[in-house]
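Quiz preparation item.
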């Protein structure tokens, strides 16, 4: 778990532009990376970026979209972890499904949007990578700011 936390922290850093040799994301010039500080408010910038990608979906490279979903989802997840004092940890799809096989009918395959989840100590999980992919495909009804805010509130209630 700690190893995945480190890997996804690096992916989030790549999304924010701090890893010079990272694979490219879609239209990086459209993302105001200077505003990405792991705060909940920074996800409003990510929402604006994802709205651009949604509008230009036909122009997206498959490889860059793969990196965007992975790195962007990692960034959203790391915001959630940062805002909840690491209430959640990253877990691989296969590891999570081993203990939660009842979800296989809902999430039948491991792909870039489902390769890892955030899970808490009770096993509740959330899917920030999938939220990035859905925003690009479906539009702003999939706000990552709202998504993260809900997980942050839920984690705060769990601590009470």
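Solution:
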């Amino acid at each position: 778990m700690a190893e995945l936390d480190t890997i996804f922290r690096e992916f989030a850093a790549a999304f924010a532009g701090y890893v010079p040799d990272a694979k490219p994301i879609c239209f990086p010039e459209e993302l105001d990376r200077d505003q990405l500080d792991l705060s909940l408010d920074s996800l409003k910038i990510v929402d604006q970026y994802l709205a651009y990608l949604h509008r230009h979906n036909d122009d997206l490279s498959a490889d860059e979209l793969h990196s965007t979903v992975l790195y962007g989802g990692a960034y959203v997840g790391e915001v959630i972890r940062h805002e909840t004092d690491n209430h959640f940890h990253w877990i691989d799809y296969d590891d999570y499904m081993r203990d939660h096989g009842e979800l296989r009918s809902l999430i039948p395959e491991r792909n870039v949007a489902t390769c890892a989840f955030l899970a808490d100590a009770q096993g509740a999980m959330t899917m920030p990578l999938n939220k990035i992919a859905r925003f690009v495909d479906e539009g702003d009804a999939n706000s990552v700011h709202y998504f993260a805010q809900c997980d942050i509130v839920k984690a705060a209630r769990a601590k009470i």
